[in-house]
Amino acid sequence: MSSSSTSSSSTPLHNQPAPSSQSQLASLEAPADAAYYPAAIVGFDADGAGRYALRSPATGKVIAEVADCGVEQAKLAADNAQRGFESWRKTTPFERAALLKAWHQAMLEAKETLAVTMAREMGKPIREARGEVDYAASFLEWYAEQARRIDGDILPAQHPDKRLAVLRQPVGPVLAITPWNFPAAMITRKVAPGLAAGCSVIVKPAEQTPITALMLARLWQQVGGPAEVFQVITAERPAAVSDELMADRRIRKVTFTGSTPVGKHLYAKSAATMKRMSLELGGHAPFLVFDDADIDAAVAEVMASKFRNGGQTCVCANRIYVQRGILETFSARLTAAVDALRVGQPEDESTQIGPLVSQAGRDKAQSHIDDALGKGAKRLTAARDVDGFFVAPTVLADVTGDMRIMQEETFGPVAPLIAFESEEEAIAAANATPFGLAAYLWTRNLGRAARVSEALDYGIVGVNDGAPSVPQAPFGGVKDSGLGREGGRYGIDEYLDLKFVSTRLDG
Question: Which member of 53, 148, 262, 424 has the greatest number of CB atoms within 10 A?
């Protein structure tokens, strides 16, 4: 991306022909050689903002420079978002759907560039990164269809001269604050329903992964999307930007994915301007393996849940409870599978576990291992020599409730095993946490599957399924894991207000 100001026309959509796929891809290049990436804000002045260096978590080398925005850029983005909203809300659902579909196709055509960018920005193995692009694009496709299904109601009236209607209308400009672990999918899961509903959206991506977001904005504009409708504001220390936008009354909704403490902070700040809030916060997911399980299949699902993205997901299995009768066999097979994982550079096609995103992330995961070992746990996996931000994939046995790994989200490739005796014991242990995002269980008993899935206090439950997330289903948690839902037909409701219109016909 060049360092020139970002600009785009706000003319009607039908006057903005989509370029060819060749031209879409030509301007997208993965970060290298410290290229500069400005913010995707209409009227952005590159000379008026600072810059910060973006480093690879795999090598420690600077891979790019990114605009370091502050209060003035946040005000500009909000001005643009309000102006973009006033125009965008007047477009038809069919126009919005056409643009979302074009954006979906552009993302798929740019898959390799986006995947390499994610690998370089946050260390995601390249094969997983390609999968994330497909997953991220699927939200654009889904909400392109949902845009056409925003309807209302006609209510029966007590008087023959009245007509009662309920309209569903866009809430207004939206602030989306997104995490680094899924730098494409967490944006599209928020932006797609917002745009489909008729809202404008400002994305504040994680400081570790801004370039993926900027590339999505570039693709949006290249297929004809108005730049004022989808903007990206980047910042190394985002507190000032977030505070400014949270205080702006024109921002009517905030959607946030991140830690529970930050989510609670934003929730409290939202009260001053009565913003709509969606919060997808921390998790501490249990995985219950019952003694009737197909052990090999259960191991495969635990691997899919726990070690995807190096364990850096809010829904990954963080506590693995195994019924005592199969514990020894399950432990041995899981250990063998984890020992076979290949740790390496993210862009290596054979890599299954890359680096953690930062020194702080690495230190936390390693501290959970060290704490558990110091309190009597046993390491079942073989020792590996790793350095930098890498953490060796680890299975721990004899884990007890006083260990940090049982109380905190690890966000790393560490699998603790805990024995249980009965169904009731497993449910009680799984629910003994303030978090309630995702939970998993493996059983071949249909009655048990129904009982346990209904008893688990979680927003998402995978039954014999370690990867239940799909664009057509609601995603979100309960308790300290947040509020609101993203995905499916439910997700677009978060961006719509209900308006009741009572009309007297003889007025």
Answer: 262
